[in-house]
Amino acid sequence: MSFFKYGIDTLTVAKAIDLSTGKLIGIIDDTAKQKINQSQQYVNEIVANNDTVYGINTGFGILSNKKISEEDTRTLQYKILQSHSVGVGNPIPKQISKLMLITKLQALAQGFSGVQLSTLERILWHIDNDVIPVVPEKGSVGASGDLAPLAHLCLPLIGLGEVFYKGNIIKTSELFQAENLQSITLGPKEGLALINGTQFILSYAIADVQRMHNCLEVSDIIGAMSLEALQGTKAPFDERLHKLRPFKGNQLVAQRLRLLLQHSEIMNSHEDCDRVQDPYSLRCMPQVHGASRNAWQHLKQLTEIELNAVTDNPIIFNAEDTISGGNFHGQPLALPLDYCCFAASELGNISDRRCYLLLEGKFGLPMLLMNEVGLNSGFMIPQYTTAALVTENKTLCFPASADSIPTSLGQEDHVSMGSISGRKLYQILDNLEYILAIELMSACQAIEFRRPLKSSALLETAHDFVRQTVSFANEDRIFADDINQIKKIISDFSFMNYVEEKQALNKGFEEFEL
Q1: For residue range 83-138, what is the model confidence (pLDDT) as tens digits?
Q2: 3 - beta bridge partners?
Q3: Domain spanning 3-197: which superfamily?
Q4: Among 48, 58, 72, 232, which is most buried by a count of CB atoms within 10 Å?
Q5: Residue ranges, CATH 1.20.200.10, the chain
Q6: Mutual orientation of helices 13-21 and 199-229 as an angle, nearest 10°?
Q7: pTM of the shown model
Q8: Which residues are designated catalytic?
Q9: What is the DSSP pairing of strand 168-171 with strand 162-165?
């Protein structure tokens, strides 16, 4: 079993996912413990010397000019968790909340926040035992940290709030009774350190990076299947063409399409046809899918910087050197998250266009992908769903980071709204998985009208995997059932993994791997 040392080792998106699923075990080693204890000692010295330092012996935000007595500094930290727990809406997914614990621990264990080792060990206990705080989805403006969601995340440390426990949501008081636990008594600055940071935005970014990577990989496979069904040409994917406009994402998609279409009987059967050009949704997959890949890569790079950053405030360098800055501001992630909203939405947009092409009854395919239509509507209505989902995604593309509403009576006068950006991308990806499921369902149906000709080995593998779940449709049925089944094999990564384990499609472009 591999171990990850919080505060010492470099955290990546893949490692964060592995920590959240138990494939990787996190520890606080002796080196980290020494740094954590030293930082806490600095805070104790500040309190003992009665030095005025924001958040240690002052109020918060607009109340930073209010001095707090030494005897009240601990009460102050308890109250900040209470007062900032103002989140509303449904609980965020349990995985996101667990990632918040993981990323919060990574930030605090670096030893610049003055927290107690016992506090971090309790957070680690929650991770190891999969006892995950319930965090409402709404309430963060993404600057001065993700205050509301982080406050809810940390309420169980002081015996408040709710947790996911053994398949249920229970009150923390019930957890304490079941597990014989006691509340932590927070020391000076600890409450502020716990709620200051970007871990809500960051955890959504981690999940978004993983899910969008899957959608990008799947889009190429499904797009290639649609191109085969429509007897399109592979000429626009020629390596020489893409060297003349060498965007990395474009080159990768073109390479993947070449490999996916290699040795296809269907492709070879129409080499001498008189079609000059394919529609853009087929011909321009490298440019469109590739642009979305470039956006994804940028988000991944910035997410991995944030994964190893200290986003607390103030930062404690030593007892005489503290800086109250703005490392909690979510703008560095808010912008690329919004950018990826556009990029993910475009994957759905071009997929819908391919769905439409498959229905037109051209190039030897039956109209609406059924031989007997009239009594049967065929695959006409599933494309209505893709059209609806594409439009819904477009409405979600308004950039939250373009907005800012002052808070804290103007002290916090510019905020990132990055928490909304992260949640919106998560919603868009959910819609995108449905759109891709409908295209995959339609492409599998269409390819069977090319029999006895076979596609490439890779695309036949993809087709066969779908057929393990959903059969060919000779007549109308409740296609929602088929859509949901195919969406599941997309969203659980099994479709991508099944196809891509047969061949390394991204060789030479490792920077685009998760």
Answers
A1: 999 999 999 999 999 999 999 999 999 999 999 999 999 999 999 999 999 999 99
A2: 25
A3: Fumarase/aspartase (N-terminal domain) (1.10.275.10)
A4: 232
A5: 204-311+325-509
A6: 100
A7: 0.96
A8: 54, 84, 196, 280, 283, 328, 412
A9: antiparallel
